[in-house]
Amino acid sequence: MKTMIGTVAYHREIVPGIFDMGIDCGEAAKAAQAGQFVNVLCEGGDALLRRPISVCDAEGNLLRIVYEVKGKGTTLLSKYQVGQSINFLGPLGHGFDLETAGEKPLVIGGGIGTYPLLLLTKKLNDANVFLGFRDKNRLTLLDEFERIANTKAATDDGSYGHHGLVTDLVKPHLEQHGGSMIYACGPKPMLKAVQALAAQFGVPSQLSMEERMGCGIGACLVCACKTKDADGQVHQSHVCCDGPVFDGKTIVFD
């Protein structure tokens, strides 16, 4: 896997603890597909492992990542300045399949799982987007989604949009309008609920899984998840190289 060196073009905190970074990286930006990720070396401290961060957007030579500061590595990353070099692997993994989107795709995101859905939504025609957040203070990128698609939002505490789960918005939409494909990324409970809705309404789905990753290329075996084949046999797959996007009906949630 080729190591890429980019330059930080912009870097800003968009809500407390969540940062938006643009990386001028030419070749990698042009190759990026919706649903893929980059594995970033967070220099300046003792974070040994790279950090996997989803591709939020890509245009021209600029690759965009949006990430939440959660630990040692992302804390180091948050200190990067404009003009600084940044070392990463990628883009990595299997992204979303756009060829099977159909005419009535749904895009469902929860929390930090909304970020990799922006590039996807830009590439879809007439998508209906449903986004869930903890509260109004965590709303991020909502205005960008609203500019490109019919977008509805939910918050856990009711401080913005629908009071409740994002899947509360999805079910009545499927009842009234149906859907040709469901694309989703977010926490496991949300993805499990999306999987159930897809099965209930007979709509295919593609789910982007979030797991801890070490190497990002399938060597360390940290990011194992259970999937089943057409015969119902359960196997161990790896989010970094077999995913992060999987056919929704193949994922086995514990």
Please outline what is shown here.
By secondary structure, the chain is an alpha/beta fold.
List strands and helices in order, with pairings.
Blueprint: E1 3-15, E2 18-24, H1 27-31, E3 37-41, E4 51-54, E5 57-59, E6 62-68, H2 72-77, E7 85-92, E8 105-110, H3 117-123, E9 128-133, H4 142-148, E10 150-155, E11 162-163, H5 167-177, E12 181-185, H6 188-201, E13 205-208, E14 224-228, E15 234-238, H7 239-242, E16 245-247
Parallel strand pairs: 8-9, 8-12, 9-10, 10-11, 12-13
Antiparallel strand pairs: 1-2, 1-7, 2-6, 3-4, 3-7, 5-6, 13-16, 14-15
Helix pairs in contact: 5-6
Please describe what this structure looks like:
With 254 residues, the chain is of the alpha/beta class. It has seven helices and 16 strands. The chain has a seven-stranded antiparallel β-sheet with strand order 4-3-7-1-2-6-5. The chain has a seven-stranded mixed β-sheet with strand order 11-10-9-8-12-13-16, sandwiched between helices. It has a two-stranded antiparallel sheet with strand order 14-15. α5 (167-177) packs parallel to α6 (188-201). The two termini are 32 Å apart. 46% of the residues are buried. The mean pLDDT is 92.
List keywords for this structure.
254 residues, alpha/beta
For the biggest β-sheet, the strand order reads 4-3-7-1-2-6-5
What is the first-to-last residue Cα distance? 32 Å
**Low-pLDDT segments:** none
* Annotation, overall tally of beta strands: 16
Protein structure class: alpha/beta
